[in-house]
Each structure stands twice: as C-alpha cells, then as structure tokens.
Amino acid sequence: MKQKVLLIVLIAITFTVSAQNKMKSTKELIDKADPGWPIVEEWIKTAKNKVEILPVDQARANETLYKTQVTTRSTMGAVIFMTGGLLIDDGWIRILGSGSSKFNRTLPDWNKGKSFNEFGETPSFLLIADDAIGGFYLLNGGGLGNDLGKIYYFSPDNLEYEPLDITYSEFLGFCFNNDLDKFYEGNRWNGWREEVSKLKGDEVFNFYPFLWTAEGSDINKNTRKVIPIQEQYNLNLDLRKQIGFGQ
C-alpha cells in the first residue's frame, strides 16, 4: 500500500522546476521525513538484472540536485542525490545521477543545451539514461507528446521516439527486472557483455552500416567503434533530419 501511495506521489512530482530566480535551495529539496532512496534501494536488492550503484560525491550531489530541482522524495531525486549513477547489465544501460569517475556525466549538465538552455528553465524533456548502442531514454516534459511524465526511447534502430508508457519509477523497474535480452533482441552481438563492461560512461558503440538501415540489420556483421556519446547524440538528431523526421 505504501509503495502504491508513493508511486502516485512520484507521478505527480515529475518536475518541480520553476523560474530560475525562484529555484529551491538544496536544503529545501532534501526530504528527510520520507526519502525515496530506501524504496529504490529495496528494488535494487531484489533486482533480477545486475545493478551497480556508483559512488556519490556529496558536494557534487548537492549541486546536481539543486540544478535539477527535484526533491529526494522522488525516485529521480533519490538516484541523483544518493548515487553517481546506476549501471545496468554491466553498463549496457546507464542511468544518470550526480556523476562519478566511471560515469562522468550528471543529469542536469548532460541536458543543458539539449532540453533547456539555463538551469531553472522548465525542460521540454529530460535525458535520464542511455545505452551502449546509442539509444537514449527521455522523460517527457511536454515536448514529446501529451503523456507528461512518461518515458520515451530514442531508438538507434529506427531513429524514432518510442513511447514506453511508463513513469520514471516504472522505468527503474524496467531496468532492474525486465528481460533486456528480449527488449534489445537483434541489437546484442556475440560477446557484447565483455566489450560493454569496458566502456566509459561517456562513450557508446557506433555501428556501420547504421542499425536503422536494411544493410545494418544483422549487428554481428556490422563494424563498430567506440565514440563519445555527445557525438552519437548529435549524429542521431542529424540523421533524423536527413531522413525527414525533423527534430
């Protein structure tokens, strides 16, 4: 019952961003009475998939929470404040937190210039996670559709924003317990786990031919190289425009 009530609360607290001059202090965003981390921690303990909690630097966590403007009562706020990020399946999926040496990106800094220009602005979406093959998970802030607070997958094999019809909390459950082999069917090559485990958190595999082409449909036949994730994100957007999807 408590988890059900918490989920309702979390859905309601999607974004608490206000005008920049009205941004809440870190102290105001820390909820000591009902923090979300114990729930997330319990989910991780019972997870079917491998979850690595990256160490957190408290000063960096404070700054990241402030820039994101979400409370630690929410699951997103809990992940930001209590982790440097989460790695799923040996780093196949990387969930953004407050950054660490292994995953040197924070959620707000990674989104700046993509979903907003200045901290404190209301974002049209938030990039909350990504995967090793250049796919991106986004939380809809109104810029992707009418389903505010739901997660989309910017897929590298079709360059479309696919609605997953799940909230951020449910996305954590998806990462922790879903059959990822089935979700990524056709996109995991022989020996992927060893290669992916060596990736840095700001790197992805780039494939040629592209995964969205007929020639690139067999991932085991494609050539692949490691590139910066920023380069892959820009490439995905450029390719969308070139094939007529727009932004």
Termini distance? 41 Å
**Helix-strand sequence:** HHHEHHEEHEEEEHHHEEH
Structural class category: alpha+beta
Instruction: Give the helix proportion (percent range).
Output: 25-40%
Q: Looking at the chains present, what oligomeric state does this protein adopt? A: single chain
How big is the Rg? 18 Å
How many strands? Answer: 9
Largest sheet: 7 strands, antiparallel
The side-by-side strand order for the widest beta sheet comes to 1-2-3-4-5-6-7
Number of helical regions: 10
The portion of residues forming beta strands comes to 15-25%
Coarse shape: globular
Indicate the mean pLDDT: 91
Unreliable segments of 5+ consecutive residues: 7-20
Characterize the structure shown.
The chain is of the alpha+beta class and 247 residues long. The chain contains 10 helices and 9 strands. It has helices spanning 2-12, 26-29, 37-45, 58-68, 75-82, 107-111, 168-177, 180-183, 192-196, 229-242; strands at residues 51-53, 85-88, 93-96, 125-131, 136-140, 151-154, 161-163, 203-208, 223-228. It has a 7-stranded antiparallel sheet with strand order 1-2-3-4-5-6-7. A hairpin with a 4-residue loop joins strand 2 (85-88) and strand 3 (93-96).
